[in-house]
Amino acid sequence: xxxxxxxxxxxxxxxxxxxxxxxxxxxxxxxxxxxxxxxxxxxxxxxxxxxxxxxxxxxxxxxxxxxxxxxxxxxxxxxxxxxxxxxxxxxxxxxxxxxxxxxxxxxxxxxxxxxxxxxxxxxxxxxxxxxxxxxxxxxxxxxxxxxxxxxxxxxxxxxxxxxxxxxxxxxxxxxxxxxxxxxxxxxxxxxxxxxxxxxxxxxxxxxxxxxxxxxxxxxxxxxxxxxxxxxxxxxxxxxxxxxxxxxxxxxxxxxxxxxxxxxxxxxxxxxxxxxxxxxxxxxxxxxxxxxxxxxxxxxxxxxxx
Length: 305
Known about the structure:
Elements: E1 11-14, H1 21-51, H2 58-85, E2 91-93, H3 94-127, H4 132-135, H5 138-164, E3 173-174, H6 181-187, H7 193-226, H8 231-239, H9 242-259, H10 268-290, H11 292-304
Parallel strand pairs: 1-3
Antiparallel strand pairs: 1-2
């Protein structure tokens, strides 16, 4: 129960990575380079898809939205982290903290459902190729993407409302480099039962459902590929999924390490860095380096220019 004379904190202090100025400077340069690559890579993917008629297909429509989400999610975290690395006082206002919680939850949830939509797209393309133009129509793709944004917005609003009802009186030190729900719940001096229920329910409902769609899609995809007699046919069918599989593995691998406490306490912060900073940079690189259509579209665009 919250204290009757509780004075609500107006700002939170954020834990840095180290107190050593040299190490902080090195980390600043490393994260700045990572962020610049993230911006250039994701913006490049979006511009390339819009400028190349050969990439005007459902798979690349989802990819363009994924690049936009990665760009936004990285921008929510990294610029503030870069400022803090160069500052003695690492803090964030209460309103800024709630905004960070809201935006981060929104885009993390959207990414989960975009990855599920992309898995469904690959399932239809490989398991039901004759029905693909009908099933994955522009209307259906728009509905899948719009639904992903709507679910993300719903989750963000729900989580933020639950956070705004908590009281923070005794401690305002967050052992992380940004505002996340779990550390905030641990800091609260009021009852956190409802917030924990909302967090668990959202993770189960949204996280499990999106993972289930991905798993079921790839079970059907693998079964279909194994039934193909030609080795070349198997290779071509599987090659259309490798980029997405790699992206899914990186995203969920990093998130599991972060939120299921698979790493030690000392390594948790670096698992969060992988999830929030590195993963948005890797996705455009994965699709650029492993996708022949993207590389060919890039070559054609350069020739036009």
